[in-house]
């Protein structure tokens, strides 16, 4: 019997070591690059540099994500089969290291490509990148569910993960706009090459420490001696009422937060007439998120994850509406609102993700422990929200008559376009987050005593 197999046998939970959690969480630095930069810059890149219309640009970001709805659950089932056979999930993780290739291609659009041809180029590499990202993301996020640890320890794992993810979001969210400030194609290509190294290095470090975590804290082998079909896995996860409520809530949460990311460059340019504020506003959003994570963990130990998650969602509703005055309110008050939104964002991520291992633990008690299947559906939902957010915003821009342009050309936007831009970053996110609150209120698992 292998070391990993022996560790998977029932036994007392072993608290993960801090150094192993930091190493594991390093993978989130690279994930932060992929999550942030396309959501923040791709729509703007296509409409302002590549001459792609807002509607076509939105479709280019949305359609590749349709594949994610199939790929992520499938990878979840595959990783469960690999875990049953090998005692680990590292095969898929290694494939995910190739994401750097698709990342470079995504922003290195040939000079002769614009409009439809540019959209096809970006869409093709976006599909490839999403598949490779899923190879890494699904088994990576299954790790906390795989470990033999308790209720609060699962929150602790995700606190470390969210802390480094926020650092990755912050670094990418501030560095990427600064690197492409002039808006030229060469700047976007150079930025992609510089950040590709981060994707590879952090991925390798994470794989090493995932193994160390499993060796130290134990590894839960998914249930079943035979391979389950993807359909079976989907049926089991969707029958789980708490998982269904949390997933639907997070779908609307993800749409809302990615509308915000996609809207920031437009908001700063057309509301404040200062593109340099993009990096400033992203910093104001993400720096508090890095600080708030440990604070939210402490609060949740008294109030519970569910209650804290609802508080964060409600704060995001009112914070989004507070952005309406824009320049009339001034830069500093707007920064203050964004700081509050960033603090809420930290809780949205921490509590939603840390509830997934709790759901898996409850499923294990019922005899249906398939952590990969749950994570695959969860990451598919996350990817869908990532895509729908920019698409919704691009659709609002298109409805308002927003006109796209190419590198080096300025276009005056109509009053209706400016109004649509503002509605898209305030009223629309607030309404969508309110839907998330409605679904989250149906979640009942966290009302049980902490395990």
Description:
The protein has 451 residues and is mostly helical. It has one domain (18-447): Growth Hormone, Chain: A. It contains 17 helices and no strands. It has helices spanning 3-7, 18-25, 27-48, 54-86, 90-95, 99-107, 116-146, 151-179, 185-217, 230-239, 241-271, 277-303, 305-321, 331-365, 371-399, 415-425, 427-440. Helix 7 (116-146) runs antiparallel to helix 15 and helix 15 (371-399) packs antiparallel against helix 16. The longest helix is centred in the C-terminal third of the chain and has 35 residues, at 331-365. It is globular. The chain starts with a helix and ends in an 11-residue tail after the last helix. The model is unreliable at 1-12 (pLDDT under 50). The chain crosses the membrane at residues 21-46, 52-71, 92-113, 119-141, 162-182, 188-210, 245-267, 279-296, 308-325, 331-356, 417-439. One of its GO terms (biological process) is carbohydrate transport. GO terms for molecular function: symporter activity. Its main location: membrane. Residues 242-451 form the Major facilitator superfamily (MFS) profile domain.
